[in-house]
Amino acid sequence: MSLSLEANSYGNLLLEGNCTTCHHKTKNISAPSLKVIVTRYKEAFAKKEDFVSYMSTWVVKPKEETSIMLDMISKYELMPELGYDKDTLEIISSYLYDMNFDEEK
Ligand code: HEC
Known about the structure:
GO terms for molecular function: electron transfer activity; heme binding; metal ion binding. By secondary structure, this protein is mainly alpha-helical.
Protein backbone atom coordinates (compact mmCIF):
# COMPACT_ATOMS: atom_id res chain seq x y z
CA MET A 1 0.00 0.00 0.00
CA SER A 2 2.53 2.60 1.06
CA LEU A 3 4.91 1.35 -1.59
CA SER A 4 2.47 1.86 -4.43
CA LEU A 5 1.54 5.26 -3.05
CA GLU A 6 5.18 6.24 -3.09
CA ALA A 7 5.64 4.97 -6.62
CA ASN A 8 2.59 6.96 -7.60
CA SER A 9 3.69 10.30 -6.25
CA TYR A 10 7.15 9.71 -7.67
CA GLY A 11 5.56 9.00 -11.05
CA ASN A 12 3.58 12.19 -10.80
CA LEU A 13 6.68 14.19 -9.87
CA LEU A 14 8.62 12.82 -12.82
CA LEU A 15 5.75 13.47 -15.20
CA GLU A 16 5.20 17.04 -14.03
CA GLY A 17 8.89 17.87 -14.17
CA ASN A 18 9.70 16.33 -17.50
CA CYS A 19 6.69 15.85 -19.74
CA THR A 20 4.06 18.46 -18.95
CA THR A 21 6.19 21.29 -20.35
CA CYS A 22 5.09 20.00 -23.74
CA HIS A 23 2.19 17.65 -22.95
CA HIS A 24 -0.77 19.29 -21.22
CA LYS A 25 -3.02 16.82 -19.45
CA THR A 26 -6.07 17.36 -21.60
CA LYS A 27 -5.34 20.15 -24.12
CA ASN A 28 -3.40 19.80 -27.34
CA ILE A 29 -1.06 22.79 -27.37
CA SER A 30 2.50 22.32 -28.66
CA ALA A 31 2.15 18.55 -28.48
CA PRO A 32 -0.71 16.05 -28.20
CA SER A 33 -2.24 15.96 -24.70
CA LEU A 34 -1.43 13.14 -22.31
CA LYS A 35 -5.05 12.13 -22.57
CA VAL A 36 -4.77 11.67 -26.34
CA ILE A 37 -1.54 9.72 -26.01
CA VAL A 38 -2.83 7.43 -23.27
CA THR A 39 -6.07 6.79 -25.15
CA ARG A 40 -4.18 5.84 -28.32
CA TYR A 41 -1.69 3.69 -26.48
CA LYS A 42 -4.44 1.85 -24.66
CA GLU A 43 -6.16 1.15 -27.97
CA ALA A 44 -2.93 -0.35 -29.24
CA PHE A 45 -1.79 -2.03 -26.01
CA ALA A 46 -4.56 -3.22 -23.73
CA LYS A 47 -2.21 -4.85 -21.25
CA LYS A 48 -0.41 -2.51 -18.87
CA GLU A 49 2.80 -4.48 -19.31
CA ASP A 50 2.80 -3.94 -23.09
CA PHE A 51 1.76 -0.30 -22.77
CA VAL A 52 4.60 0.47 -20.36
CA SER A 53 7.17 -1.50 -22.30
CA TYR A 54 6.36 0.10 -25.68
CA MET A 55 6.02 3.63 -24.39
CA SER A 56 9.20 3.65 -22.31
CA THR A 57 11.20 2.15 -25.19
CA TRP A 58 9.79 4.70 -27.63
CA VAL A 59 10.53 7.71 -25.43
CA VAL A 60 14.16 6.64 -24.93
CA LYS A 61 14.57 7.07 -28.68
CA PRO A 62 11.62 8.66 -30.49
CA LYS A 63 11.47 7.36 -34.06
CA GLU A 64 8.98 7.86 -36.83
CA GLU A 65 9.25 4.18 -37.83
CA THR A 66 8.05 2.97 -34.44
CA SER A 67 5.51 5.73 -33.71
CA ILE A 68 1.90 4.70 -33.30
CA MET A 69 0.80 8.33 -33.75
CA LEU A 70 2.15 9.32 -37.15
CA ASP A 71 -0.57 11.96 -37.61
CA MET A 72 0.81 13.73 -34.53
CA ILE A 73 4.29 13.76 -36.00
CA SER A 74 3.02 15.46 -39.14
CA LYS A 75 1.13 17.93 -36.98
CA TYR A 76 3.76 18.71 -34.31
CA GLU A 77 7.00 17.15 -35.63
CA LEU A 78 8.79 14.25 -34.00
CA MET A 79 9.29 14.44 -30.25
CA PRO A 80 12.92 15.24 -29.37
CA GLU A 81 15.14 12.73 -27.59
CA LEU A 82 15.18 13.72 -23.91
CA GLY A 83 17.91 11.49 -22.54
CA TYR A 84 16.02 9.79 -19.72
CA ASP A 85 16.85 6.23 -18.77
CA LYS A 86 14.38 3.44 -19.35
CA ASP A 87 13.73 2.79 -15.63
CA THR A 88 12.55 6.37 -15.11
CA LEU A 89 10.37 6.17 -18.21
CA GLU A 90 8.82 2.92 -17.01
CA ILE A 91 7.72 4.65 -13.80
CA ILE A 92 6.25 7.52 -15.82
CA SER A 93 4.51 5.19 -18.31
CA SER A 94 3.05 3.09 -15.53
CA TYR A 95 1.75 6.22 -13.83
CA LEU A 96 0.21 7.38 -17.12
CA TYR A 97 -1.55 4.06 -17.63
CA ASP A 98 -3.28 4.43 -14.26
CA MET A 99 -4.04 8.12 -14.62
CA ASN A 100 -7.68 9.13 -14.46
CA PHE A 101 -8.41 11.88 -16.95
CA ASP A 102 -12.10 12.22 -16.18
CA GLU A 103 -11.34 14.31 -13.12
CA GLU A 104 -9.12 16.70 -15.06
CA LYS A 105 -10.50 19.77 -16.69
C1 HEC B 1 9.98 19.24 -26.08
C2 HEC B 1 8.59 18.83 -26.03
C3 HEC B 1 8.26 17.44 -25.48
C4 HEC B 1 8.59 16.92 -24.24
C5 HEC B 1 9.41 17.56 -23.11
C6 HEC B 1 7.98 15.60 -24.19
N1 HEC B 1 7.32 15.33 -25.37
FE1 HEC B 1 6.32 13.60 -25.82
N2 HEC B 1 5.88 14.34 -27.69
C7 HEC B 1 6.17 15.63 -28.14
C8 HEC B 1 5.57 15.81 -29.45
C9 HEC B 1 5.65 17.08 -30.29
C10 HEC B 1 4.91 14.60 -29.78
C11 HEC B 1 4.07 14.29 -31.04
C12 HEC B 1 4.88 13.78 -32.19
C13 HEC B 1 5.42 12.40 -31.99
O1 HEC B 1 4.63 11.43 -31.75
O2 HEC B 1 6.65 12.25 -32.04
C14 HEC B 1 5.13 13.70 -28.66
C15 HEC B 1 4.67 12.38 -28.60
C16 HEC B 1 4.78 11.55 -27.50
C17 HEC B 1 4.31 10.18 -27.48
C18 HEC B 1 3.64 9.45 -28.64
C19 HEC B 1 4.61 8.49 -29.27
C20 HEC B 1 4.24 7.98 -30.62
O3 HEC B 1 3.88 6.79 -30.73
O4 HEC B 1 4.34 8.75 -31.61
C21 HEC B 1 4.58 9.69 -26.23
C22 HEC B 1 4.29 8.31 -25.69
C23 HEC B 1 5.23 10.76 -25.48
N3 HEC B 1 5.33 11.87 -26.28
C24 HEC B 1 5.64 10.66 -24.17
C25 HEC B 1 6.36 11.64 -23.48
C26 HEC B 1 6.83 11.48 -22.13
C27 HEC B 1 6.60 10.26 -21.24
C28 HEC B 1 7.52 12.63 -21.82
C29 HEC B 1 8.26 12.97 -20.52
C30 HEC B 1 9.33 12.04 -20.16
C31 HEC B 1 7.45 13.51 -22.99
N4 HEC B 1 6.74 12.86 -23.98
C32 HEC B 1 8.06 14.76 -23.08
C33 HEC B 1 6.91 16.59 -27.45
C34 HEC B 1 7.46 16.44 -26.18
